[in-house]
Amino acid sequence: MKLLYKTVSVWMVLVWTAWGLYAQEPIQPIPKHLSYNHAKAVLGYRLFIDPALSADGTVACVNCHSFGHGGADPRPVSVGVHGKKGHVNAPTVYNSYFNFRQFWNGRAKDLKEQAGGPLHNPIEMAMRPHQVEKYLNQNGQYRRLFQEVYARAPRYTDALDAIAEFEKALYTPDCRFDRYLRKEADLTPLQKRGYDLFKTDGCITCHNGINIGGNSYQKMGLIIPYPWSAKAPDRFRLTKNPMDKNVFKVPTLRNIVLTAPYFHDGSAKTLKEALQKMAYHNLGFELDKKEIEALEAFLKTLTGRTPAILKEMGM
Ligand code: HEC
Ligand code: HEC
Questions:
Q1: Which of 1, 124, 186, 308 is deepest in the core (most CB within 10 A)?
Q2: With a 6 A CB cut-off, is 64 part of the ligand 1 pocket?
Q3: Which of 304, 275, 308 shows the shortest CA–CA distance to 181?
């Protein structure tokens, strides 16, 4: 009897586990509403679009993270102060709150730590913390706003905090695919086929979770090597381990049709080109025309609503 009971319960656990795995999709929708501190976010917005936070007064965060371009940069590599060209394609700031780390190689643990990066970077905004603080304290409007939000005179760390809060508000809910996951909308047969291919081809092994990426480091060129450059913003820069060459944080695929060009080096001009290279280098096969068409149709369902805070700011 005891043995029978044991056998039955083992079976039940197995059935439950299988059911759980089956029922759970490998991609989760982003929340319809995310709570954030509104006053901080509005201040963060002002800082985000203010070119006076750069050494030559010409470069704001928004220059390289364009609201009209899915939060990314239409240029293959970004251009900073004094027209200096970088080597890296700017990823989107939309939904970056959901990434497990920030930057292509994950060197910042969160958005607040990240925001200091471009401000200091000599080829981006090239400002020192005390210069930022001085500028903010000389500006009557900022003095008033920081007083209202942080109850003290402008401080550098509070500015980073406000920027991070604004970025938290840059989430794009209710894309068609999220509504499909919530059973609020259907996919067309082509979109559905694209999603099936995305799973059966193996894209899903790296692009999964709430951001369909942004939650692991993976090698670009896992199967067929991708050319490496000493300028690549990869994990190797941090670890000096040769295995980490061309290893990056997997980018999010949310709003992907809006954010061309693609890859850390901006080398793929179109989404089609990015898909072909992905399949070739990371899965070791070539996609045919029909597969590309279906995958593209699926990826188009990942474009969400414009962040509410941007509508509020009249963008
Ligand atoms: C000159 C262009 C430029 C400016 C100005 C700039 N960025 Fe970036 N941003 C980039 C590039 C390029 C990267 C990728 C760098 C890397 O990973 O090494 C990046 C990465 C990021 C990321 C990480 C996203 C992710 O998925 O990892 C965030 C968040 C971000 N920037 C926010 C900001 C904020 C906030 C500001 C203003 C304080 C700013 N950026 C200013 C070009 C720029
Ligand atoms: C082994 C892990 C892995 C697999 C499998 C994989 N990807 Fe990627 N994907 C990455 C990494 C890493 C990058 C960033 C590469 C770079 O910038 O050089 C990336 C980048 C992309 C990009 C460009 C994103 C951007 O913002 O620049 C697209 C689009 C993409 N993948 C789609 C797919 C599709 C579709 C598949 C399946 C056919 C797939 N990926 C399979 C890891 C993977």
A1: 124
A2: yes
A3: 304
- Other beta carbons within 10 angstroms of residue 186's beta carbon come to 11
> Cβ of 57: how many Cβ atoms within 10 Å?
12
User: Which distant-in-sequence residues (6+ apart) come within 8 Å of 274 by Cβ?
Assistant: 262, 263, 268
Atom nearest to 205 CA in ligand 2? 5
For residue 169, which amino acid is it? A
User: What are the tens digits of pLDDT across the range 287-298?
Assistant: 999 999 999 999
Rounded distance between C-alpha atoms, residue 196 and residue 204, angstroms: 10
Residue 153 CA to residue 43 CA, distance in Å, equals 14
Q: Which tens digit of pLDDT belongs to each residue from 10-21?
A: 454 444 444 444
- Taking CA atoms only, the protein residue closest to ligand 2 atom 17 is 263
Ligand number with the minimum distance to the CA of 211: 1
Residue 295, C-beta contacts closer than 8 angstroms, at least 6 positions apart: 194, 197, 198, 203, 275, 287
Closest residue to atom 41 of ligand 1, CA basis: 61
